[in-house]
Design goal:
Strand content: 35-45%
Distance between the termini: 95 Å
Helix content: 10-25%
Shape: elongated
């Protein structure tokens, strides 16, 4: 008998046995294995909502936003009582496979992911088993990345944060308050977080940027801010800085930027220069103005006679206009233009801005005052 004919049915039998074994009840496959903390963090990011039970009202319209920079925003509207939402925010992380909201007091501070829902747990971290259990299941809404949400960057700026960065796989965030602290967080709590005073910055070798080196109780921390375009791997948005964080033997890569007051954007007409009001008498002289585009990091406008263009970078309350290029038209009176360009070139400029006015400051004194233009 041909040996091959004997082996063929045996092979078929073995394949059938293997297929049956993989479908036996209770067998563990990759699809039903518990998620790691990093997988929970990646899956949880986004917006979740539902109507949860209320003791003295028909229900609470509840929305929870979990952001990749480890911040959360919780919004509750009590039906039949008030249309004014109750909003609070803070930080979140992942531990023991659960989402953990870091807020004071008892309550629904822990949640667990189950399929496409996020389930609130009771105050002891257990699943709610009452008849209202299904009401504590939150459905996923359209997620919103923090870098695409200007209000989140604005909130950081108002808290005094000067530089912010985030990274993916694993998710982490970095906040630098130049006058106070550096805070580095990983959403996976197994890797922990670090809060440390800001050390002296060192210049990077072979690249434009700075590095911070810190010895903390949990080990060494090195943060490199390199001024080169960085693309966020999830949103596709471009950032001006590539950021690398070395925490002991772990390396985190991501993108960041210095936070800017969004009110700087737009047209600004020069109304006062070094203490003197601007009065355009020469017919050839035009109103000096600046147009600031924070998204592109650029400034353009007119110095008087000539048009100007260049780059700018606000850092905290400082502003650096960088080299300013100007056209070369000759006018009868170039004094105002020369004076204006000299002020913009000063490396020690600071700024103060409101909705209607912008002041450039040198030594605490206003050297150029602008009014909001159209």
């Amino acid at each position: 008998m041909n040996p091959l004919k004997l082996l063929f049915p045996i092979a078929i039998l073995l394949l059938c046995i293997a297929a049956a074994c993989t479908n036996l009840p209770g067998s563990v496959t990759q699809s039903n294995a518990p998620m790691s903390n990093a997988e929970v963090a990646r899956t949880a990011i986004g917006m979740w909502s539902g109507t949860i039970p209320c003791a003295d009202c028909p229900g609470i319209d509840y929305t929870l936003e979990l952001h990749a920079d480890s911040t959360y925003r919780e919004r509750m509207v009590y039906q039949g009582r008030s249309a004014t939402p109750f909003v609070q925010s803070g930080h979140w992380g992942v531990g023991d496979g659960r989402v953990q909201l870091k807020k004071q007091g008892v309550g629904n501070n822990q949640l667990v992911i189950e399929g496409e829902t996020l389930i609130m747990l009771d105050s002891e971290g257990n699943k709610i088993e009452s008849q209202l259990a299904d009401a504590y299941r939150l459905a996923r809404q359209n997620p919103e990345e923090p870098e695409d949400n200007p209000s989140l960057w604005r909130e950081k700026y108002e808290r005094g944060i000067d530089f912010a960065a985030t990274g993916n796989e694993p998710f982490w965030s970095l906040e630098i308050d130049l006058e106070k602290m550096i805070e580095f967080k990983a959403l996976d709590e197994e890797n922990g977080s670090v809060l440390t005073p800001v050390p002296a910055a060192e210049k990077l070798e072979g690249a434009e940027g700075i590095v911070y080196k810190v010895q903390t109780v949990s080990g060494n921390l090195e943060i490199r801010l390199v001024k080169e375009t960085c693309v966020n791997t999830m949103s596709g948005r471009k950032f001006p800085y590539t950021v690398t964080v070395l925490k002991n033997d772990m390396e985190y890569k991501g993108c960041g930027m210095y936070l800017r007051d969004s009110r700087l954007n737009g047209n600004w007409n020069l109304v006062e220069l070094e203490g003197k009001a601007i009065n355009i008498k020469d017919a050839e002289q035009n109103q000096p103005f600046l147009n600031i585009d924070l998204a592109e990091g650029r400034v353009s406008g007119r110095a008087g006679c000539n048009r100007i263009t260049g780059r700018l970078e606000p850092i905290s309350d400082r502003i650096n206009f960088g080299p300013i290029a100007a056209t070369r038209m000759a006018c009868l009176d170039m004094d105002l233009e020369s004076q204006f360009l000299r002020v913009l070139s000063d490396a020690e400029l600071r700024y103060s801005v409101s909705e209607e006015s912008l002041e450039l400051l040198l030594g605490g004194k206003a050297v150029a005052v602008f009014a909001r233009g159209k």
